C-alpha cells in the first residue's frame, strides 16, 4: 500500500506542479502546434526522463537539508541566472518568429533533445520536489525507503509526461481560448521565465 501511495503522490505533485502555464508546458504547446504530435511525444519523453535524476536529487537533498540548508540557497541563485538567460532567449526568438511566420514554415526541431535541455535547465524542478517531499514527510506520509522512493519517482515521471501530453493534445483548443496570445508563444515563455526569475530573487531577499 505504501508503494501505491508514493506512486500516487509522485503523480499528483508533478501533474499539479506543471498544470499552470510554465516554460515546459508552453513549449509543449508550441511544438504540438508547429511540429505535430510525434515531435510532442519525443519532447515529453525527453522532459520526463530528466525528472528521474531531479526527483532523486530532491529526495537526497530533503533528507539532508537539516544538516546543510545552504544547498537550496545555492540552487536558487543558479536558477536566477538560468531563468534570466532563458527569458532573454525566448524574447529574442519571439522577435525572429514574427518574421519567420510570415515568410517560411517553421522548421522541425530535435524535440527529444529540446525536452532534455529545457528540463535540465529548469532548476525550479528540484526545489519544487524538495518542497513536495518535505511536505509529505512533515505529515509522516513519505518514506525514504529505496522502493518507496522508486515508486515516487515513477509516479513523478508519468505525471510530468501526462500533463505535457494533455497540453499538446488540446493545443488547438488552448490556442483558440487564449486568442492572439498564443500566436507568439515565445513571448509568453519569455514573460514566464522572467517572472520566475523575479520571484526567485524576491524570495532570496526575504
Automatic annotation (TrEMBL):
Keywords: Membrane, Transmembrane, Transmembrane helix. The chain crosses the membrane at residues 6-31, 43-62, 74-91, 112-136, 148-167, 187-205. This is Glutamate dehydrogenase.
Amino acid at each position: 500500500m505504501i508503494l501505491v501511495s508514493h506512486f500516487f503522490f509522485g503523480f499528483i505533485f508533478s501533474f499539479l506542479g506543471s498544470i499552470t502555464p510554465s516554460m515546459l508546458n508552453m513549449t509543449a504547446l508550441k511544438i504540438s502546434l508547429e511540429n505535430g504530435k510525434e515531435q510532442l511525444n519525443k519532447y515529453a519523453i525527453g522532459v520526463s526522463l530528466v525528472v528521474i535524476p531531479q526527483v532523486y536529487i530532491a529526495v537526497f537533498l530533503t533528507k539532508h537539508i537539516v544538516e546543510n540548508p545552504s544547498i537550496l540557497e545555492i540552487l536558487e541563485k543558479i536558477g536566477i541566472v538560468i531563468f534570466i538567460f532563458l527569458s532573454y532567449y525566448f524574447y529574442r526568438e519571439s522577435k525572429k518568429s514574427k518574421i519567420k511566420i510570415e515568410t517560411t514554415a517553421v522548421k522541425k526541431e530535435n524535440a527529444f533533445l529540446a525536452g532534455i535541455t529545457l528540463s535540465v535547465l529548469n532548476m525550479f524542478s528540484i526545489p519544487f520536489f524538495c518542497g513536495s517531499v518535505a511536505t509529505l514527510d512533515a505529515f509522516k506520509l513519505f518514506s525514504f525507503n529505496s522502493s518507496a522512493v522508486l515508486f515516487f519517482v515513477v509516479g513523478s515521471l508519468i505525471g510530468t509526461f501526462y500533463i505535457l501530453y494533455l497540453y499538446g493534445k488540446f493545443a488547438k483548443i488552448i490556442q483558440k481560448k487564449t486568442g492572439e496570445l498564443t500566436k507568439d508563444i515565445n513571448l509568453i515563455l519569455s514573460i514566464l521565465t522572467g517572472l520566475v526569475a523575479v520571484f526567485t530573487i524576491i524570495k532570496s531577499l526575504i
